[in-house]
Write a structure and sequence with these properties.
Keywords: Phosphopantetheine, Phosphoprotein. Residues 1-190 form the AMP-dependent synthetase/ligase domain. By secondary structure, this protein is an alpha/beta fold. The protein folds into 2 domains: 5-155, 3-Layer(aba) Sandwich (Rossmann fold); 159-232, Luciferase, Domain 3 (Luciferase, domain 3, Roll), CATH 2.30.38. Helix content is 31%, strand content 26%. The protein has helices spanning 5-19, 38-48, 57-61, 63-72, 82-91, 110-119, 144-148, 194-200; strands at residues 26-29, 51-54, 77-80, 100-103, 122-127, 137-140, 154-155, 159-164, 176-183, 201-203, 211-221, 227-232. Strands 2-1-3-4-5-6-7 form a 7-stranded mixed beta sheet, sandwiched between helices. A hairpin with a 7-residue loop joins strand 10 (201-203) and strand 11 (211-221). Helix 1 packs across helix 2 (38-48) and helix 4 packs across helix 5. The chain is globular, with a radius of gyration of 18 Å.
């Protein structure tokens, strides 16, 4: 996937405005650089003046050591997949009350959302494919209904989302449809794969010009305007 400097800058500026990290914040980078979400962990602290702490190989492999690193370095920002968060919570009783948690990369179930919300300072469920530059939507898990069925939330920054049927018509509120993403995060396409790029990156017919990405994810628009992930359209 060819992601541009402008795409990445949009992501970083959006999270800088949303999280407002300062020199007192410490972000623990736990993601391999082969995974796109590592870009936020590495570059956001460098952009905002927060402190970047790199997890060691041993800490990557051992949730107990990683949990201790969170306490030792007094981490205040941590991004991880639900699987890693589950391992951290099971590893030990280290205090997470000062940690703002970003959860993404996999579907988040209610049980983990509740346990994490009870222990962390705040929890945000984030969603996005690589093709729209890491994260495109976010949902603070700050209400009971959001803990029951964690949504993937509202669009971030200059991102637009459309829930459409097979004819690219908007689906009424509460209905199921495929999620299309437009805006500043949409990548150029697949390097050397013009056919696949044309299939997944399609013209945006809603008056904004440009293109939108067909995610293949089935969602429902919630009453508050946020999005609930339901599954894949191709499985």
């Amino acid at each position: 996937v060819t992601v541009t400097y402008g795409n990445l800058t949009h992501l970083l500026r959006t999270f800088a405005e949303r999280l407002k990290p300062t020199c007192d914040d410490r972000l623990l980078a736990v993601t391999t650089v082969a995974f796109d979400i590592a870009a936020l962990e590495i570059f956001l602290p460098l952009m905002t003046g927060a402190r970047l702490v790199l997890a060691t190989d041993d800490e990557h492999r051992d949730p107990l050591r990683l949990s201790r690193a969170v306490a030792e370095h007094r981490i205040t920002l941590l991004q991880a997949t639900p699987a890693l968060w589950q391992s951290l919570l099971e590893a030990g009783p280290e205090d997470l009350s000062g940690v703002r948690a970003l959860v993404g990369g996999e579907a988040l179930h209610s049980g983990l959302a509740r346990e994490l919300r009870a222990r962390a300072r705040e929890v945000t469920n984030v969603y996005g494919p690589t093709e729209t530059t890491v994260w495109s939507t976010a949902a603070p898990l700050d209400r009971e209904d959001r803990l029951n069925r964690p949504p993937i939330g509202e669009p971030l920054g200059d991102t637009r989302v459309h829930v459409l049927d097979e004819r690219l018509r908007p689906v009424p509120a509460g209905g199921r449809g495929e999620l299309y993403i437009a805006g500043a995060g949409v990548a150029r396409g697949y390097r050397g794969r013009g056919d696949l790029t044309a299939d997944r990156f399609v013209a945006d017919p809603f008056g904004h010009g440009g293109r939108m990405y067909r995610t293949g994810d089935v969602v429902r628009r919630c009453a508050d305007g946020g999005l609930e992930f339901l599954g894949r359209s191709d499985f």
